[in-house]
Amino acid sequence: MCDWPIEEEGRTWYGLKNDKIVVFLTYAEIPVQKSLQFVKHVDAGAVVYFGGTTRETFEGREVVHLEYEAHIKMALKTLRNIATNITSSSHSKIHRIVICHRLGVVPKKEESVLVALSSTHREEGWRAAEGALEDIKKSAEIWKKEQYLQGHSWKGDKVK
Amino acid sequence: MCDWPIEEEGRTWYGLKNDKIVVFLTYAEIPVQKSLQFVKHVDAGAVVYFGGTTRETFEGREVVHLEYEAHIKMALKTLRNIATNITSSSHSKIHRIVICHRLGVVPKKEESVLVALSSTHREEGWRAAEGALEDIKKSAEIWKKEQYLQGHSWKGDKVK
């Protein structure tokens, strides 16, 4: 178990890693299967997963690749707060959560962001996962560069 | 590619299997990773997954195991209709979908039901996945037996 402050492991930075929560940024491919295995819990009747994947086109223009940059320390703290709020509420029936954002170039069809969690019932799982994702888009200090065949544009990940 | 009518492959029955939709019932473990790989699409910015997993307790009673039975032909047709409706709507931006329900005994932490899909944007993905799951619970001809330490109860899967 490692905890804040961040610990560099190759090119993966953990904001939090304990028996309920894993939050990290990485330049490597996001480990979807491992994340789903982690969140499973004997008290959970539901596992909800969201993966944001790179599309071939954006507003009619062909995307060559997407690239993400972050203020690593600030972004990890933000993601950590989102995960902690979700699991620590006294009303929460969210048992385990993984939040991960990839940095650098993310090839087509691969995940740039992952939210995976388990909940006692399905309703609270849907709400928590969608809420976490919106919070990430809105708050995390992560920026996206869309490289087109001609030109590119930078934007906060908060923009869809 | 195999299509309706149902085709028996060992203990897996397909209601539909083409390049956009996979719907099946199985006595084997649900292939989560394979389902997620299948739904990924170059036009999709989102992958949404839901897995219904067996809990250790239900209403305070210890569950020894859950067991599912179906009217296989009817249930496949129902699941097929749910998947087809979601992908064939002219407004739909759902690119690929997998719906699967497991039959027989489902051990703790394993999936009894899976919905996985990809969508252009995240909002339509969340709505479609949750809608599909509710339709499955409400309509599919699948029944759940909860085996407790003492006694058991049967119920339609539509009951949470």
From TrEMBL, chains A, B:
SUPFAM superfamilies found in the cross-reference section: Molybdopterin synthase subunit MoaE
CDD domains from the UniProt entry: MoaE
Alphabetical GO biological process terms: Mo-molybdopterin cofactor biosynthetic process
InterPro entries: MoaE_sf (IPR036563), Mopterin_biosynth_MoaE (IPR003448)
PANTHER family (alphabetical): MOLYBDOPTERIN SYNTHASE RELATED
Protein's name in the database: BA75_01077T0
Organism: Komagataella pastoris
